[in-house]
Structures are given as C-alpha cells and as structure tokens.
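Much of our argument rests on the idea that a fold can be written as discrete symbols. In the encoding step, the backbone of a single protein was reduced to a row of integers, each denoting a local shape. We regard such an encoding as a compact summary of how the chain folds. The record that follows shows the chain in one-letter code together with its fold in token form:
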Amino acid sequence: MAWELDDEHREFRDVCRGFVDKVVRPAVDAAEAAGEFPAQLWKPLGAAGLLGLVTPAEHGGSDGDALAVALFAEEIARASGGIAVTALVSAYMAGTHLVRHGSPAQQDRWCAAVAAGEAVAAIAVTEPDTGSDVARIRTTARRTADGYVLDGAKMFITNAGIADVIVVAARTGGDGHRGVTLFEVPAGTPGMSFGRPLPKMGWHSSDTREVVLDGVEVPADAVVGVENRGFYQIMEGFQLERIALAAMGLGHAAECLDPRWPTPASARPSARR
C-alpha cells in the first residue's frame, strides 16, 4: 500500500526506536526535572546520523528525505517532547536554512557541525505580537557601510539560550512579505541578549526564551539566502518543520497507546465502577 513504509524506512524506524530506548529514555526524567536539554546527547545523536538526515553528504549528512525526518521525530517524541523539539529545531527547522540557502562559507561553518551534534542552531522568527504571520515581523535590519544593524525582539525562540548560531528574520524592505531577510548571527554577537527560560506546561527540557536584538552589527555576508526573499525561504522551511511537528504529535499519541507500558490502576475500567 502507498502509505506503508518501504524496507529501508522501516529499518530506519527500528534504528531510531532502538537508539531512543537505549540512549534518550534514560536521560528524560533528569532533563525534565532540571529544565535543561541533556548536552551529553548531542554527539551520540550526531554520530548515529540522526541530525544530518537532509544534509548533503559533503557536509556530513546522508542527503535523505522528509519521511526519514518524520520517522525520527515520531520516535524521539515518544520518549520526550522537550528533548525531541530541541534536536529537531537545531537540525531540521534552523539548520536547514543554512543547508538550503547558506553561502559556501556559512555551510562550511555550520552544516557539518550541526549534523555532528557539535553545534546547535536556532531560528528566530516569532515576535511578541507576531506568530506565524511572518509578513508582519517588525525587527529591522538597517544597512550600513559594513553590513547591517539588527534591532527588535523575538519571543518563544527554541534553543535560544544554547544555540551556537541563530538564524534571525528581520525587515530589510517595506511592509509585507517582500521585505524580509534572514541573517546568520553567531552566539556572543554584541547586542544580542536573552531573557530567562520561559516556564511551560510541558517540554521542560526545551530551552525557550525571548531574544533581544539591540544594535546587533553583522557583516554583509551574514545574509542567509537572498535579501528580501526571507519570507519565501521561511515558508519553504515551514514545510519540513510542520511535518516534523505533526510527527512529534503522532509519537506522543503512539506512546500513550504503547502496550509496553502498563495502564495505571486508576485508569482501568474496573477502577471506575
């Protein structure tokens, strides 16, 4: 049937499940209690090839497909949403902008490192009063003789406090979707600061913060892709991002129904008679 996995993807799913059961699950309780992603997972995730599924081979990836990303997202989300979204944002929501649209220098700096779990990426699009309506972002990028100066604020940014590089969306043109550009902003760039980790109902091991950009100077070659084409690049990125998030939801649901885990006595039908 068209919706059944082929042998290659079925084997890959089993590899993901085995990795998650052996490596990820033992770290979940401590990570959720501490409210921090377990940093010791990055390199094993990279060594297992799980962070470079759509990265070209020349940058340390396997040049795979969206279905592989969905299978990985489903399996890791079975163990922990917070751990899952941290890895998925770095590799498949932020890092993919550098894979697809980064300059050769940007790709050399980040793609292999992200795929190996040696660097963490984040993407800063959402603002305090602007969510998925990317055409309404207000953060600005002003042209200077040497590059650009970024000013504005971003909200609910996953991985902000642990990222080595943040891909920032800012307005370089007029109003609407034709004036947005993406920028490579390495951690530690003067003028970029972060709020405290935001409390959440779940996914406690995911780092989520406000990002403040106050006179952040970046060079002209910090543009990721094409100036004023950032909206379209973000929409392209959303395609894989939303597949991964949907697969996470499926993983959460599958975990709830997994017969490996006993049903609590309070939830059994006999307990409600």
Summary: The chain has a mean pLDDT of 94. The domain at 121-226 is CATH 2.40.110.10 (Butyryl-CoA Dehydrogenase, subunit A; domain 2).
